[in-house]
Amino acid sequence: MMRISTSWMYQQSVTTMLNQEGELSNTQNQVSTGLRISVPSDDPTGAAQVVSLNHVLAENTGYTNNITAANTRLSTETSALSSVTNLLNSANDIGLSAINSSLSSSDLSNMATQLTQLRDQLVQLANTTDGNGSPLFAGTSTTATPFVQSSSGSVTYAGNNQQSLTAIGQGLQVANSDPGSSVFMDIPAGNGSFVASAGSGNTGTLVVGANSVTDTTAWTAANASGPVNDTITFGANGTYAVTDANGNPVNDANGNPITGTYQDGGSITFDGLSVTMSGSPAAGDTVSVNADTAQNTQNVFTTLNNMITALQSGNANSTSLNNTLNRQLESLNQAMTSVSNTQVSVGSRIDTLQQQQSSYSDLSVTYQSALSDVQNVDMATAISNLSLQSTALQASQQVFAKVQGLSLFNYIQS
Q1: How far apart are CA 137 and CA 127, in angstroms?
Q2: Per-residue pLDDT tens digits of the chain, which is 414 residues long
Q3: For residue 91, what are the CA distances in angstroms to 332, 382, 403?
Q4: Does 45 reside within a domain?
Q5: Domain interval for residue 126
Q6: What is the CATH number of the domain that holds 352?
Q7: Which letter does DSSP use for residue 182 in this model?
Q8: Which of 88, 303, 310, 81 is nearest to 183 (CA)?
Q9: DSSP of 220-263, one letter per residue?
Q10: Does residue 301 lie within any of the structural domains?
């Protein structure tokens, strides 16, 4: 028969009560914190899941914050570009009003003053900053003022050609701004394909008007061996001939030299392009057609400055003024197209940000639910366990109190 000592019974009772107190303390902690896992030892596998889920949630929060910041910058850029569009429209209206109008020199001077004010406002818009004071149109440059205006009114760009990017997901980046070089500076001159200009030494009343590419196939073929750089030279009674940069005749598809007779208000067509003109050319007058797009770029500030200079020095209805304004209005339209294209691009990026933000919002709900399932305690079960464990501990303590009072002497005395 096994002998059970008094000390052994005490030890067993104490051990049981200590275990019960530990379980009760753990359950009390769960009820007070609402967490099933407070330390990794509570559930090593679950603790690993908690770490992983918290990492994903933190990453999503970081990307969401990036999206918010990028969206703020792009929204600010959208507002600035809208103001730029309105400004350029006003400049275009002024230029159109000055062409073929009965205006005095004073009227032209007033128009030049208006354009000067618009140019200065445009410089301010180009130097727009975000809420942190960082310029929107400096690329990735840290310069505070990307567009620097000299005392003469000319503007230079001190930023770079790079787009500032924001990470909005694993391997996913979105440009949060646009470099000023692409928006305001590197703008194709003329109609975007070529520049048609009346010769500076012309003595007639010929004004070069609208011009464009009308036959893409023929135009591509004409530029196959190098950019078109031709000259239309007029003879007596509006006759003309077209020559290349070396003075050689330019031939049509049948190999015949391109010649003809121009009539006031008509157009001259060759190599897939068409140039509309008005007025009467004098013998020896010329019109150049240059498709060297690498050379033919003009920033919007230069365009406005050229218009200002022409209005300050020109006479209303003069051939020179009309030719200058026509060319500058072409460049101004190219600048407006550049701004419009940028607006479309910005709008597309804002849409991407909103879609990504919505996706992260949905994912956060899913991950938070998963984290709650793993980490949080079932409160009803925990409270029930707390009650049972408390009752069990009290019972153990009462039993121990009775047992420790038992001895052989008590039995003999009874």
Answers
A1: 7
A2: 455 566 666 676 667 667 655 665 565 665 556 555 555 555 566 556 656 766 767 788 888 899 999 999 999 999 999 999 999 999 999 999 998 677 888 899 999 999 999 999 999 999 999 988 999 999 999 898 999 999 999 999 999 999 999 999 888 899 999 999 999 999 998 888 999 999 989 999 999 999 999 999 999 999 998 899 999 999 999 999 999 999 999 998 888 999 999 999 999 999 999 999 999 999 999 999 999 876 778 999 999 999 999 999 877 668 999 999 999 999 999 999 999 999 999 999 999 999 988 888 876 777 666 655 555 555 556 566 556 666 765 666 666 666 666 555 555 555
A3: 8, 74, 103
A4: no
A5: 55-188+333-363
A6: 1.20.1330.10
A7: I
A8: 81
A9: HHHTTTS--EEEEEE-GGGEEEEE-TTSPBPB-TTS-B-EEE--
A10: no
Do 129 and 72 lie in one domain? The reply is: yes
Distance CA 29, CA 35 (A): 8
Distances (CA, A) of 315 to 123, 210, 310: 28, 22, 9
Domain's final residue, options 245, 277, 296: 296
Tokens matching residue 162: 């790079």
Same domain, 199 and 244: yes
pTM (2 d.p.): 0.78
387 to each of 144, 198, 256, 384, 391, how far by Cα in Å?
A: 67, 99, 107, 5, 6
Instruction: Give me the residues paired with residue 146 across strands.
Output: none
Residue type, 15: T
Are residues 65 and 91 part of one domain? yes
Q: Give the Cβ contact number of residue 216 at 10 Å.
A: 10
Residue type for position 411:
Y
Judge whether 271 lies within some domain. yes
For residue 67, give the nearest of 354, 366, 363 by alpha carbon. 354
Q: Does 215 share its domain with 283?
A: yes
Say whether both 63 and 150 belong to one domain. Answer: yes
The residue assigned the tokens 């301010």 is 124
Strand-pair partners of 106: none
**CA 77 distance to own-chain centroid:** 8
Q: Which two tokens stand for residue 261?
A: 């007779």
Contact present, 166 and 156 (Cβ < 8 Å): no
**How many domains does one find in the chain?**
2
Neighbours of 332 (CB within 10 A): 23
Structure tokens at 270: 């060759």
User: For residue 218, which of 248, 258, 187, 245 has the smallest C-alpha distance?
Assistant: 258
Of 240, 229, 226, the closest CA to residue 194 belongs to: 229
